[in-house]
Amino acid sequence: MQVRGKLFIGGRWEAPQGPEWLTVVSPTTEAPFGRVPEATGADVEAAVAAARLAFDEGPWPRMSFDERAEGLARFVAAFERRAAEAVDLQIDEMGGVRKFLGPATHGVGPFLSRLLVDGRAIPFREVRAGVTGKVVVLREPIGVVAGIVPWNAPVMAAITKIFPALLMGCRSC
């Protein structure tokens, strides 16, 4: 059984605020597969505060689009080395079938490639005609982004929320 005793908050593994645990039961075998701490409202607030601090004081939102793209590409390269393991974990955790989860999980790299093409087409600074004259439209990072991820294909579902926010310079929590 896999046991994770801490929550990943602010780039570190932190002890949870509450005493409750969740048992992960494999829908495939109906056997307990793992145990994780149940995050409390205080844990969520700590994660949001850490993301906000990273946004306000960290380098990510001030990096260029290409620098952020390179950071995400490094993540994808590291992830792809463990993609088969990620497929197996998703099968154990949520009972999906390999025929569905395999292509979805191995699609992380192509998804980033598509995002980079689309992202490079975005005008980050644009001069437009306004009612009283020319106006400048700036597309800038705005802060912390939270996404609710569905249970089916959780890796790709999370990536489709996290990557666009990070690529545009926001922080995810």
Mean pLDDT figure = 93
Q: Kindly, what is the distance between the CA atoms of the first and last residues, rounded to a whole number of angstroms?
A: 27 Å
Record field, number of beta strands: 9
Shape descriptor reads: globular
Measured as a percent range, the helix fraction is 40-55%
What structural class should be given to the helix and strand makeup? Answer: alpha/beta
Question: Main sheet?
Answer: 3 strands, mixed
Oligomeric state as shown: single chain
Task: Report the order of strands and helices.
Answer: EEEEEHHHHHEEEHE
- For the record, the CATH architecture of the largest domain stands as 3-Layer(aba) Sandwich
CATH domain topology of the largest domain = Aldehyde Dehydrogenase, Chain A, domain 1
Low-confidence stretches: none
The strand order across the widest sheet is 1-5-4
Integer tally of domains: 2
Number of helices: 6
Return the CATH class of the largest domain. Alpha Beta
How much is the radius of gyration in Å?
A: 19 Å
Q: What portion of residues belong to β-strands?
A: 15-25%
Give the name of the CATH superfamily of the largest domain: Aldehyde Dehydrogenase, Chain A, domain 1
